[in-house]
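Practice problem: predict the structure.
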Amino acid sequence: MESKRDQRVAVMLFVVTLASVFLVYGYQWMGGDPLSDSATAIGSAKFAGALMAILLAHEMGHYLVAKRHGFSLSLPYFIPFPSAFGTLGAVIRLKSLPESRTALLEMGAAGPLAGFAVAVVVLCFGLPNTIEHQMPQMILMWPPAEVAAVAEPGKLDLVLGWLFSHPPLSWLVGGTEPGSVQMMILANPLIMDIIGSIVLGGAPGRYAELDPFATAGWVGCLLTGINLIPIGSLDGGHIVNAAFPTLSRRITKFCLILAFLGAYLWVGWLVWAGILALIGATYSTPAPKRPPLSARAKWVSALVLVAFGLSFMPAPVEIDTLQLDELEVFDLDGNKVPIEDLQAWMESQQS
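Answer:
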């Protein structure tokens, strides 16, 4: 039983993380002020509520199934983060070891299956509101004379800028030629294509504008797919360790190597695999080899494979370099900016 202090800390961190997700999505993804603009606030609330529901379902799936099997986990402690999606997920501590391989497998599988189920529901709500664009769109402050002066870069900005402009990291991000811009493109997990075909008549296009609910569902799929990779202390590592205890270490090493090689597809794999290797998260929770897995655990394993196939994206994010004439550019009031004017301004800044 958790102490009242632990319960208060868990609730406080959940609330702080919810606020962090709300603010980050409003300021960084919608480009507005969620504290003063009602449209931005509504979008941020939809995303934050949906994403935190997915994460909470994931963590409580672990917690409740572990309790049912007679071993203990701590309450989930959510981690706020001032960038990306506003959170780094949650930490949940193992207080006692599982007494069987079935217990370990079902505990490991319960989190991603529960989170994925909520992500699918969220996608069903969000995808009907998808707005398709034939060309990518960019919103900026225009005319340039109204743009506030840019502050001097901090030390961290200078260090990161230098690292990513020199080998070996420069090849990961590439560069832009004069008159071009870089745009982040989100890949579609298979489940998004399936739901899109049902509710939209086709999968969301490359430049589709997703509703905040659908964006949260996409993040939920990303987290599900990553968590189910069979590496060490990830959920997939627990599942493989329970299913194949004599092979799990070899599978972990092989998948970790694949994750590093995956940097050719997405730089995030390099960062993610490096963190796992540095913190030693390549070891799964031990469980006794006897008794063998129950029939129910084997069916759960099958469901995990289905969820992994529907959610995993080899290259979740792509950086696309586009020429200005391949974009539709709008100012903050929704007025289209003539490409010739933008091109002339960019050329004047380079001279």
